[in-house]
Amino acid sequence: MKVTYNWLKDFVEIKISPKELAEKFTMAGLEVTSLEEKGGDFVFEIEITSNRPDWLSVTGIAREAAAITNSRLKLPAVKKQKKPGAAVVPFIIKVDDRRDCPLYTAKIIRGVKVGPSPDWLRKRLELVGCRSINNIVDITNYILFTYGEPLHAFDLDKLSGNTINVRRAKNGEKITTIDGQEKALSPDILLIADQKRPVAIAGVMGGQDTEVSYATKNILLEAAVFNLIVVRRGRRILGIQSESSYRFERGVNLEAVDSAAWQAVELMQDLAGGDCALAKSAGLNKVKRKSIILSSTAVNKILGLDIALGRIEKILKSLGFNIQAKPKEAFAVKIPSHRPDVTSGIDLVEEIARIYGYENIPQTLPTVRPQVNARDTRDTVSLIKNILVGLGSNEVITYSLTDKDLLKDFGMHEGFEAVEVLNPLSKEQEVLRPSLTPGLATCVAYNLNQRQDYINIFEVAGVFSQLNNLPREELKLGIALCGIKPLLLKQGLIKEPAGLLDLKGMLEVVFTRLGINDYDFKTDGAVYVAAEKIGLMEKLPGSALEKLDIKNRDVFVAALSLDRLLVHINTGRKFSPLPVYPGISRDISLILKEDISIGDVLGMIKGAAGPLLKDAKVTDYYKGKQIPAGFRGLTISCLYRSDERTLTEAEVSPVHSEVCKLLAGNFAAQIR
Amino acid sequence: MDIETIKAQIDSEIQNINSTQNLEEFRLKYLGRKGILAQLTSQIPLLPQEERALFGQQVNALKNRILSLVSEKQKSITGGPIHRKADIYDISMPGIAQELGRLHPITQVIDEICTIFNRMGFSIVEGPDIETEFNNFTGLNIPLEHPSRDAFDTFYLKGKDKLLLRSHTSPVQIRVMKSRKPPLAIVVPGRVYRPDATDASHSFMFHQIEGFMVSENIRFSDLKGVLELVARAVFGKDIKMRFRPHFFPFTEPSAEVDISCIICKGKGCSVCGRKGWLEILGSGMIHPNVFKHVGYDPKKYTGFAFGMGIERIAMLKFGIDDIRLFFENDLRFLKQF
Questions:
Q1: What is the β-pairing status of strands A205-206 and A92-95?
Q2: Average model confidence (pLDDT) across chain B
Q3: Which of A140, A335, B146, B158 has the most CB atoms at less than 10 Å from its CB?
Q4: Over the stretch A505-542, which tens digit does the pLDDT of each residue have?
Q5: pLDDT score recorded for residue B86
Q6: What's the pTM?
Q7: According to the model, what pLDDT value does residue A89 have?
Q8: How do residues A543-566 score in pLDDT, each as one tens digit?
């Protein structure tokens, strides 16, 4: 909303500079977003919140200026023309449904001379961004900006049948609006029609057929109140917005409709001549005024202040509220018709706080009674994220919405019903993602394009699916690896292509830290915790990578359900006494066929060695010249220890020999 | 052999030694148990009384000389007795460690703000991205057909009875208040969605932190006190702050909160649009209608609520000028935080 300094001064005496006024407006809730000196005046651009239709007018803002600068609002007296001119015309206003149009007033002015507006009028309108059309149209706009009451002038001679009918549109009806657009209408849209056809979209825009031109002689001036929801719905369906609809859908002041129309009539007669031949209205001309009981205790309790009753009264009066004192520091506040937003005590509290000044309210600290929660999901997720960061992975945040085709590329279309968005703005917002994988892969592709050669990323976020036709959210962890992991050691650079074992290593660290020991990684990449499948590690298929333009690279992704994982967390720790007696460590070096699983070998050792074996782990593996093709070398370190005594070689040797014998027998291992 | 001859012999022999083995032989020849110096020492008692002291000193000097020569030679052969050649110690070489990854800057800002509230006694609660129309709008006193909805364009889900992607974190207020009784002090971080065309300052998905406190005696002055503490903790002790009246359907009185521009210190620059102030959050006293919707008695309870956009705060804190950078996840970007 734009308003000028001089225009405001028509209605209120302002003794401060435009800049100071702008500051005060902002601090009172009329945020001045720009202040510009223009054409000998100052133009304020003010952001008006949607609850304040009264501020969509110069007089409304002037009322505010009066309240915050301790000045008075001066509104002109309304001159109703009691006796219409010579020729009395018959005219019918027919409102089909009062709920759509609580008040319709029409005034007929005959014998106007339509022409350009005088300079002062053109200039004012142009300063607030409104193009001058002709004197009649400009006056309707001038009144709209001044009083916030939208008016519409029809060329009376183009209306057929001396009738105005406020009705819903019929299917199939059409209208060409003054902007030259033909609009198809439907029963959701409220119309102004004459006997034959639609002549305006009520509260939104007039029709081209009946607009006022230089040839117009006689005018029908409409001032009305339309249902705000109907106006809003109609302009949304038609996709048009106007200064009128903007005000109607926020609510115009019904009690000021007629006086605004009379102000317009007077101005028209001044600038274009003519006689008012008819003034007619249909509907209410008063609204029921609500009264709210307010006590200063209630005000002070909410604001944390100690404002005296007198001060409260003065503030409310300055805003146009009517006050009647009641016992016990209370009073009844009568709500004026320009304040439809005030419906309860709390609305008045806000008014008092605004004018008193938020900056004058002290700062205090409340007493908080903390509720201490045990470790929750958020803490655990945070721990997992920090572990992954420690392992060199970077957290990414990708969009929860994605496009269906991308899911297809990742093979997620069959037997799967994604949660679809009704009103996406683009293809990338069609569905809620059922998996983190496509988003992570897209990130990998992006970074490869930026010539990053090692990508190690993860995301923790929700994914969405349908269960019994209801959408379901599940918290997931996704990790993606791609490229050559560079390790700069003393010996020099070791380039290690990242792969599934890197993912496995990261997950093992996470599991161990969370106290989860019962996990298993299957050959197909499935990850199990306590015999439940919680996720999958995979090398992404070439077809998917191709779609993302990833060439000659492997991308490895792990996707785990955190909802399922977190059930198994065991953060309770138990101390085990430190070993008292030394252990004996024995290494086994062996050559195995490649297809024998190391997991099986370790499992067998642990099973065969008995209670003295405390640990068996792989400490080296190698291929190369010394090892025949199809085989691999392996070193396994076995630790034997007793909790009761120092073991002797004599005790360990037979056990260890037995282990070696079994390895040789069961796996055809060559012990070296 | 007299001392001087031996000395000359030592000096010439040491020149030709170039292996550890030869050096050891050399050492044994002179300093060994039956070596030349031992022989010299054994002669001392045979000398006249008055010569013994001088001779002893000369033998001792010779011994020291041999020891020092051996030690020097040792260094030149092996690179020193402590460090072998392979261990050349250059502290300027790159340290060896696993490179650290980074938390996303949005996560870092959320964690920072949540931690501050946590220390003040607020609990952290999260809510789902998919919400009901009631929790997102009606319960929060946002009428369905009202211009106040314009600020909350929303993604709806297909075929689902009025389910939507939450357009703010405020629905968690409704969830928490419906399931718990006051006193409450809660903060809620999370993803929110609005069908906005993407540009340098708009994203259809972004993050908010919502906070609210409900008890029997919470005042607007408490809201001011709490938010001032938090803003100073996040943006620094020297910032100025102002509360401006505003309109939000779910709070009343409502306030927008500005801090003095952290770039120009309030003088006016391009970041703050020459105003000297940066808007960082919306807040207010919880509207009595919201309490009615969740079954709280608005005569008994009062409370405040606030919400802030994390991307905006992160952009201000880190000096980032394009919101899209947060979701492109360029590693060169992520690794800066």
A1: unpaired
A2: 89
A3: A140
A4: 999 999 999 999 999 999 999 999 999 999 999 999 99
A5: 52
A6: 0.85
A7: 67
A8: 999 999 999 899 999 999 999 999
Contact between chains at B156 and A423 (C-beta distance less than 8 A): yes
pLDDT band at B83 (very low <50, low <70, confident <90, very high): very low
Chain A residues close to B145, C-beta within 8 Å: 229, 232-233
Q: Is the pLDDT of residue B177 over 70?
A: yes
Quick one: DSSP state of residue A396? -
The DSSP result for B47-63, as a single string, is: S-HHHHHHHHHHHHHHH
Domain ranges for chain A, please list them. 2-68, 92-283, 291-358, 377-568, 584-671
Within an 8 Å CB–CB cutoff, is residue A566 touching chain B? no
Interchain CB distance below 8 Å, B129 and A369:
no
Please give the distance of CA B111 from its chain centroid, rounded to a whole number.
11
Length of chain B: 337
State how far residue B174 is from chain A, nearest Cα, in angstroms.
18
Interface probe with A: pick from B329, B332, B336, most Cβ of A within 10 Å? B329
- C-alpha to C-alpha distance for A214 and A231, rounded to whole angstroms: 30
Dump pLDDT digits (tens) for A650-661: 999 999 999 999
**Listed ranges A201-210, A320-329, B57-66; the one with the highest mean pLDDT:** A201-210
Residue A401, both tokens? 């919405």
At the top level of CATH, the class of A92-283 is alpha beta
A549 and A595 in contact (C-beta within 8 Å)? Answer: no
A488 and B151: CB-CB below 8 Å? no
Collapsing DSSP to helix, strand or coil, B65 comes out as helix
Q: Is A464 part of the contact surface with chain B (CB cutoff 8 Å)?
A: yes
Cross-chain residue pair B151–A422, CB shorter than 8 Å: no
Residue B137 lies in a domain: yes
Averaged pLDDT for residues A183-187: 95
DSSP bridge pairs for B309: B208
**Residue of A27, A292, A360, A371 best to disrupt the B interface, most CBs of B under 10 A:** A371
| Out of B183, B196, B220, closest to residue A302 by CB | B220
- HSE-up (13 A, CA, CB side) for residue B216: 2
- Starting at the edge strand that comes first in sequence, how are the strands of the sheet with A330-334 ordered? A291-295, A330-334, A322-326
Once rounded to an integer, what is the mean pLDDT over residues A613-642?
Answer: 90
Counted domains in chain B: 2
Consecutive H or E run containing B309: strand B302-309
| Closest residue, chain B, to A466 (C-alpha) | B160
Question: CB contacts < 8 Å between A and B, how many?
Answer: 247
Are B221 and A424 a contacting pair at CB < 8 A? Answer: no
Contact (CB, 8 A) for A203 and A177: no
CA angle (A273 as vertex; A269, A278 as ends), nearest 5 = 65
Identify whether residues B50 and B188 lie together within a single domain: no
Q: What is the pLDDT of residue A625?
A: 80
CATH fold for the domain made of A2-68: Phenylalanyl-tRNA Synthetase; Chain B, domain 1 (3.30.56)
Report the gap between the CA of A353 and the closest CA in chain B (Å). 8
Kindly tell me if the per-residue pLDDT of B294 is higher than 90.
yes
Residues B254 and B173 in one domain: yes
Count other Cβ atoms within 10 Å, centred on residue A569: 17
**Whether A297 contacts chain B with CB within 8 A:** no
Is the pLDDT at A90 greater than 90? The verdict is no
Q: Are residues B178 and B258 in the same domain?
A: yes
CATH number at residue B260: 3.30.930.10
Structure tokens, A199: 């002549």
Partner residue opposite A392 with nearest CB, options B100, B196, B249: B100
Q: Cβ–Cβ of B195/A429 closer than 8 Å?
A: yes
Asked whether residue B237 is domain-assigned, the answer is yes
> Does the fold of domain A584-671 match that of domain A377-568?
no
Q: Which of A71-80, A124-133, A440-449 has the lowest mean pLDDT?
A: A71-80
Percent of chain A predicted with pLDDT > 90: 77
Task: Look up the domain containing B35 and give its range.
Answer: 3-87
Distance in Å, alpha carbon of B122 to nearest chain A alpha carbon: 6
**Highest-confidence range of A168-182, A362-376, A462-476, B87-101, by mean pLDDT?**
A168-182
Q: Which fold has domain A291-358?
A: Phenylalanyl-tRNA Synthetase; Chain B, domain 1 (3.30.56)
Q: Are residues B163 and B220 in the same domain?
A: yes
CA-nearest residue of chain B to A397?
Answer: B327
CB pair distance less than 8 Å for B330 and A450: yes
